[in-house]
């Protein structure tokens, strides 16, 4: 028992400490998930040993005492918090509890809305005028932040009556969440990094830090916003549902998240809606960390009443957290397929949103220095959606002096070549094209799912193949035989069979995947697709010029040129890739090893058009311009939007533009429509 008492005391102390960091300092030391675990553990113990619950336990209080620097505001009604649910069962239990409590079959439905990750405030309107605004504080007494709140432009200083049937109550206490939109948050943090100020861990800390400023001009400079979601006291309580109440607040001029407040007729609909919010979480332009479920009927809410910390009629369904705290055990440097050196934090493994995270990218030296990230630091790591995990911030208070400052090496860690840094870039690169790490990374990229998709060929096998000299580049993969593979460590007959088959199968691919697999800098899956859709043939891509690639909007009456989505940098990278003799050799070897794809469009045998560049002007009678282009490209010709030295033909339709004159000046062959059709092989003659 003594052990348990001790554990409870320690938990309380810890939670109090973290409450202080979170509520008073806006600078948490642990992730929300970790806090939730501590809190729930304490709740659990208190449930088992109710005699150990003391009135000062953090489970009976919300938040922390206000900062002394602000004047105090007593809330008319305590600003309670919400009980948390984490899974479907918690929602079902919530519904069952309510029904049990009501003890009859009274009818009610639910509202479900996003839980905004910001900080709670109360706005008091007397006779329609905003008189006092406060933070939640310890639920009973909050901080007076009236001047700060007034800087938020979406908060009305005076309410307005728009609907005759809904007069403004004499007293209205509105509750809502002050938050910062994700983009504004990122921008603020970028600015802080530049100014060597500590970054905010998340939009909520940024909002809290911005609102709780003694000098409200600081608040003014921060892009804060509000969603109101409830009320405290109201002098004329005539509204019968939560949804009606929200509509009324909205009519009085308060900002409500109306489009996202959903009415659900039962708990199963609630569950579906919660999942929907979680799945679409990343589409919100502000951070949401859960969904809030409320009983819609206000008379039922009243009957249910409150527990110490939270109302019985509402529940917060918390999404899987996207941040966790863990330790950096070591910082490694990875060399990518383009030679870029990336520092990577090796972490004590930690589960974030259901995935075990062991590494996080640190981007580059600048990022490391600005955030002052050191080996052995405790850090907050974030994994949002499919994005690579990153280190958000260091928890400096956890340092003990053992931490080691990290500096990027000036030599490639794989081949020892002196690294280079291009002017204006922050990235260090290994310039050695024979660097084993680059070759390894290229091979991994080549066989990856988006590329040649060679199933079962992992990094370890590739490393062995390289070390044993069985492969030097991608095309060597296609020459591997059973006997070769059998000499590898720890490989079985069956897996060599599978591997040989996977390699063979990978030869049948698509143009887009092949382009992606080559690993041209800046050419990811999307750009590879664009190239394949536009040019439809490999040789066209290989021979494309910058002009053919870079997107330019056509001037009046002219067509756009290039490919939408491709700018100078990507175009430059593609052109220089295909100018490099060793790349060309590599591609030839690959194509020679039997890689093939179905042509995006059937290719005609070489025609007189092949390789010739066409410019079109005026409108044609027999086909639309897009069709003409398709025909030219289908037969191996090229399209350009303007007349240049290299232009072979100008096709002139009706009402030609200024191009005609230019073509004449430059001596470009001019074709009328009939001649054009003949060249295409579709006309008479
Ligand atoms: S209703 C009685 N609705 O989440 C409490 N709260 O974890 C009624 N929050 O204290 C709260 N979005 O600060 C409600 N749509 C929403 C919310 C929301 C964010 C915050 C609020 C609350 C905390 C509980």
What's this, in brief?
By secondary structure, the protein is an alpha+beta fold. 36% of the residues lie in helices and 20% in strands. Helix 3 runs antiparallel to helix 9 (267-279).
Estimate the global geometry from the Cα principal axes.
Answer: globular
**Cα distance, first to last residue?**
104 Å
Radius of gyration: 33 Å
At CATH's second level, what is the architecture of the largest domain?
Answer: 2-Layer Sandwich
Looking at CATH, the homologous superfamily of the largest domain is DNA ligase/mRNA capping enzyme
| Count of runs of 4 or more consecutive helical residues | 25
CATH class descriptor name of the largest domain = Alpha Beta
Molecules bound to protein: 2-(butylsulfanyl)adenosine
Specify the helix fraction band. 25-40%
User: What is the SS-derived class?
Assistant: alpha+beta
- According to CATH, the fold-level topology of the largest domain is D-amino Acid Aminotransferase, Chain A, domain 1
Report the uncertain regions.
none
Q: How many E-type strands? A: 26
Range of strand content: 15-25%
The averaged pLDDT comes out at: 89
Total count of domains: 6
Give me the oligomer status: single chain
Main beta sheet, described? 7 strands, antiparallel
Secondary-structure topology with pairs:
Blueprint: H1 2-24, H2 32-48, E1 72-74, E2 84-85, H3 88-102, E3 110-116, E4 119-126, E5 129-135, E6 141-143, H4 146-149, E7 171-180, H5 182-194, H6 203-211, H7 216-220, E8 224-234, H8 242-251, E9 262-264, H9 267-279, E10 288-295, H10 298-304, E11 314-318, E12 323-335, E13 340-352, E14 355-361, H11 365-371, E15 374-375, E16 378-382, E17 390-394, E18 404-405, E19 420-421, E20 428-429, H12 436-447, H13 459-467, H14 474-477, H15 482-486, H16 493-506, E21 508-509, H17 511-517, H18 525-535, H19 538-542, H20 546-549, H21 568-579, H22 581-592, E22 596-597, E23 613-617, H23 625-634, E24 638-639, E25 649-652, H24 659-666, E26 669-672, H25 673-680
The structure holds 2-(butylsulfanyl)adenosine.
């Amino acid at each position: 028992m003594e052990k348990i008492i001790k554990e409870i005391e320690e938990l309380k102390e810890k939670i109090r400490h973290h409450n202080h960091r979170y509520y008073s300092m806006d600078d948490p030391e642990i992730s929300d998930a970790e806090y939730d675990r501590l809190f729930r553990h304490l709740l659990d113990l208190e449930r088992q040993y109710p005699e150990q619950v003391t009135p000062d336990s953090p489970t009976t209080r919300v938040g922390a005492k206000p900062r002394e620097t602000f004047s105090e505001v007593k809330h008319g009604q305590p600003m309670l918090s919400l009980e948390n649910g984490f899974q479907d069962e918690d929602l079902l239990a919530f519904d069952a509890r309510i029904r049990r409590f009501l003890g009859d079959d009274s009818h009610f439905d639910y509202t479900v809305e996003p839980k905004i990750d910001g900080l709670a405030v109360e706005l008091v309107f007397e006779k329609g005028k905003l008189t006092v605004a406060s933070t939640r504080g310890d639920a009973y007494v909050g901080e007076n932040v009236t001047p700060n709140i007034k800087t938020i432009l979406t908060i009305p200083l005076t309410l307005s009556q728009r609907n005759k049937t809904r007069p403004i109550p004499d007293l209205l206490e509105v509750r809502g969440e002050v938050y910062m939109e994700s983009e504004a948050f990122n921008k603020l943090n970028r600015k802080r990094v530049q100014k060597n100020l500590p970054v905010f861990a998340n939009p909520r800390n940024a909002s809290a830090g911005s609102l709780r400023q003694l000098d409200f001009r600081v608040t003014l400079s921060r892009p804060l916003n509000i969603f109101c979601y409830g009320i405290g006291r109201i002098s004329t309580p005539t509204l019968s549902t939560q949804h009606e109440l929200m509509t009324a607040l909205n009519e009085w001029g308060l900002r409500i998240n109306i489009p996202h407040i959903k009415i659900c007729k039962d708990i199963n609909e609630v569950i579906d809606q919660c999942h929907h919010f979680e799945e679409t979480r990343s589409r919100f332009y502000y951070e949401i960390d859960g969904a809030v479920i409320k009983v819609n009927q206000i008379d039922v809410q009243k009957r249910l009443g409150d527990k110490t910390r939270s109302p019985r009629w509402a529940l917060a369904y918390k999404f899987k957290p996207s941040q966790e705290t863990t330790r950096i055990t070591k910082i490694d440097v990875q060399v990518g397929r383009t030679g870029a050196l990336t520092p990577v934090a090796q972490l004590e493994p930690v589960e974030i949103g259901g995935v075990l995270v062991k590494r996080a990218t640190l981007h580059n030296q600048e990022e490391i220095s600005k955030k002052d990230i050191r080996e052995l630091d405790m850090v907050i790591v974030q994994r949002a959606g499919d994005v690579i995990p990153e280190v958000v911030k260091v928890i400096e208070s956890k340092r003990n002096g053992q931490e080691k400052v990290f500096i990027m090496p000036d030599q490639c860690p794989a081949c020892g070549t002196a690294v280079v840094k291009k002017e204006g870039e922050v990235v260090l690169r290994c310039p050695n094209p024979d660097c084993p790490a680059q070759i390894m990374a290229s091979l991994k990229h080549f066989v990856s799912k988006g590329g040649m998709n060679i199933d079962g060929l992992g990094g370890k096998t590739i490393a062995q193949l390289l070390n044993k000299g069985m492969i030097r580049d991608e095309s060597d993969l296609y020459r591997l035989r059973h006997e070769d593979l059998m000499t590898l460590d720890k490989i079985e007959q069956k897996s060599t069979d599978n591997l040989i088959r996977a390699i063979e199968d990978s030869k049948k691919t698509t143009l887009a995947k092949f382009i992606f697999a080559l690993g041209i800098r800046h050419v990811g899956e999307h750009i590879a697709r664009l190239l394949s859709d536009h040019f439809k043939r490999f040789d066209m891509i290989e021979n494309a010029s910058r002009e053919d690639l870079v997107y330019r909007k056509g001037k009046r009456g002219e067509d756009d040129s290039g490919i939408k989505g491709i700018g100078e940098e990507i175009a430059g990278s593609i052109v220089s890739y295909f100018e490099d003799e060793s790349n060309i050799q590599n591609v030839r070897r690959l194509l020679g090893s039997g890689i093939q794809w179905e042509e995006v469009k059937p290719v005609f045998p070489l025609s007189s058009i092949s390789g010739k560049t066409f410019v079109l002007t005026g409108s044609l009678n027999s086909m639309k311009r897009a069709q003409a282009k398709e025909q030219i490209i289908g037969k191996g010709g090229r399209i350009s939007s303007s007349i240049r030295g290299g232009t072979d033909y100008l096709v002139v339709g009706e009402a030609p533009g200024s191009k005609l004159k230019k073509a004449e000046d430059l001596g470009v062959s001019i074709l009328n429509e009939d001649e054009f059709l003949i060249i295409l092989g579709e006309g008479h003659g």
